[in-house]
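tool=predict chain=A
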Amino acid sequence: MIRVALVDDDALVRSALGLMIGGQADIELVGEASNGEEALSLVRTSSPDVVLMDIRMPVMDGLEATRQLHAKPSPPRVIVLTTFDADEYVTTALAAGADGFLLKDTPPGDIVTAIRQVAAGDPMLSPSATASLIRQIRTEAADTSSHPAEARADAALARLSALTEREHEVALAVGRGLSNAEIAKELFLSVPTVKAHVGRLFDKLGTTNRVQIAICVHDAGLI
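tool=predict ok
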């Protein structure tokens, strides 16, 4: 059973999320909080596996709460769930220790999938958050690198050329920000098979996370 806590200053949002979680046989709602300070107390008393965390809240915002939770021993996984997808929010949330970043207009089924995925140890970013992170990394790389975009594209294409046809399809899907479940549905594969392909992508492309795969695909000009 995945234990989940909700942190949002909007009672209606908490209610809607609670109803969504309540309908899942493998997910249990263990508590709610209306600000970051209450969230810290809730985590101490309820020991959730995953926290759905809003950003803009009174008393203490979700970014600071995430930062403080991440600094504790054995912290819960945190999915930032917000209406704001500005680049600085994405990078700040991930730097604070968030394991996922989703917008509140994400379909309910995708939020449930994200909870399961993050609880299993796999990060989850919305497509817009992935794009924001890629923009940030590319900007930083451009500030420190003398290599033109053409050289980066050639290098990315060379790395991708080592992939099988199926691995290439999975890489493109990762580049679009799709989750393992979404890739499995689109390519008619099982989720374990997709995970295996992603693992091989890490080895063949010399990457350590999905964002680096997405950057490779974007640098190659394939998306």
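The first helix runs from residue 11 to 22. DSSP finds eleven helices and six strands in the chain.
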